[in-house]
Design brief:
The protein has about 140 residues and is mainly alpha-helical. The chain has a domain of about 90 residues: Cytochrome c-like domain (Cytochrome Bc1 Complex, Chain D, domain 2, Orthogonal Bundle). Helix 2 packs across helix 4.
Length: about 140
């Protein structure tokens, strides 16, 4: 039989753990929002067009590709991507900016959806970057 004193002690410990979890939740929940806000401020305000990115936006697109681990699944020489899970972007003449925007936003098959994780501006920049730098 479990004593009332033991039940009280277990309950106190559980409540203390719950309190710590709740107290730390705002700290952890703000980190992604702050990171996304910083990334969004680095992305251009208007949708970039592939073939027209300046060197700064090419670097930002390359950083997005690297930071979101796109190269783990896709091949893109400019970004050092060597993955073989998804299609290779290098030499893919049929790859369009609107297709990349749709696939990154909504996903399909093994490709996860990043809409809601990346801003629309980040997705547009990433798509423009991929289409611009893919090996001809």
């Amino acid at each position: 039989m479990v004593s009332a004193k033991r039940i009280t002690r277990v309950t106190e410990l559980g409540m203390a753990a719950l309190g710590l979890a709740l107290a730390s939740a705002p700290v952890f929940s703000q980190a992604p929002a702050q990171a996304n806000a910083a990334a969004a401020s680095a992305a251009p305000a208007s949708a970039p067009v592939a073939g027209h990115l300046d060197a700064d936006n090419v670097k930002k697109g390359r950083d997005l590709f690297a930071n979101w681990s796109c190269g783990a699944c896709h091949t893109l020489a400019d970004a050092g991507g060597t993955g073989h899970v998804g299609p290779s972007f290098d030499g893919n003449k049929d790859l369009t900016q609107s297709f990349v925007v749709d696939r990154v936003t909504n996903g399909q098959g093994a490709m996860p959806a990043f809409g809601g994780q990346l801003t629309d501006a980040e997705i547009a920049l990433l798509a423009a970057y991929i289409v611009q730098v893919k090996a001809k």
